[in-house]
Amino acid sequence: MESTSDNQGKVVLVVGAGDAIGSAIATRFAQEGYTVCMARRNGDRLAPLVEELSQQGLTAYAFTCDARKEDELIGLFEHVESSIGALEVVVFNIGANVPMKIVDTDSRKFFKIWEMACFSGFLTGREAAKRMLARGQGTIIFTGATASLRGAAGFGAFASAKAGLRAMAQSLAKEMGPKNIHVAHVVIDAPVDTAWIMENVPEASELKANDGLVVPAHLAENYLMLHNQPRDAWTFELDIRPWSESW
Hints:
The protein is of the alpha/beta class. 44% of the residues lie in helices and 17% in strands. β5, α5 and β6 form a beta-alpha-beta unit.
């Protein structure tokens, strides 16, 4: 694809490119002229989005990768960097929001949630930082949640994983900032307009009608903004919620 954009040749990787937030982030960067790489455990489900972006003259690639598996994730980074281009932005967007009372949570489930929401974030951040350090620039953004800041009844495993991710991201930001690499953490403190929310939250339709759900496309604007921030005014943590959300 030929492009006159100043961003020609810049590459973005979204790890955890789900149907809502991750896809919206990828789409927004693609619209800015970036080459977008998207990864999820079932990468074939990204084919319609790749086709949609291609029809708009935009460049996108889809990959199947289980980010909990170190070898797979390292292989993904190596393939993107060697075959597509140097990564300018990496977004970690794996959720694992599984409601479960602590007394009902067995060790296998707890560990799996931690692997998905925390350990895979560590692997993603580490691999991104290694490559960006060699170039002395880049942006790494982690998606957080209300659970990143406080635990709630029924969400012990999820909260522990998200709080761990946030702490890791803080440490990475303090290590990478002086190296000219921007690390940010986005706290989504509200329900997002997704198919799951619409199907499982009784008041979702009313919330949506009154701008009470976070729209993925609007959320994606903030990720692009974070990447474009001048380095004398970098944000580490950005919390996002609708006007009507109680906090």
